[in-house]
Amino acid sequence: MNATLAPQPVFLITHEFYPKRGGIATFTEEIAKASASLGYDIEVWAQSAAVSSEKEKTWPFRLRRLPLKGTHGLACQLRLAFQLIAERRRLRYATVYCPSPAPCWG
């Protein structure tokens, strides 16, 4: 009997993502798009975005805006830590990738 298992979800956690432009933002966007096109269950966690007249882009993956500015500061690191703790059950058996670990882990 061939049982196909659903792939584990992949969480990309970043401090810089659209509409910000930079190396990590571009890298995260491209990795998420490529992984989603290969059939992976992708969710990107990113900094909050300023409310503007433009609508959020449509992505081929889920995007979760976190209640943080996306700086390298202690306040952002603590807010991210609280989000990770709050979502620990979802993250436990998933692949968690932090493209730029410095802001995530100090």
Write the layout of secondary structure elements.
Layout: E1 10-13, H1 23-37, E2 42-46, E3 62-65, H2 74-86, H3 88-91, E4 95-97, H4 101-105
Number of helices: 4
Q: What is the residue-averaged pLDDT?
A: 85
Largest sheet: 4 strands, parallel
As laid out across the biggest beta sheet, the strand order is 3-2-1-4
CA-CA gap between termini: 47 Å
Low-confidence stretches: none
Beta-strand percentage? 15-25%
Task: Give me some keywords for this one.
106 residues; alpha/beta; four-stranded parallel β-sheet
Write up what this structure looks like.
The protein has 106 residues and is an alpha/beta fold. The protein is built from four helices and four strands. The mean pLDDT is 85.
Q: What's a quick, concise take on this entry?
A:
With 106 residues, the chain is of the alpha/beta class. The chain has 4 helices and 4 strands, in the order βαββααβα.
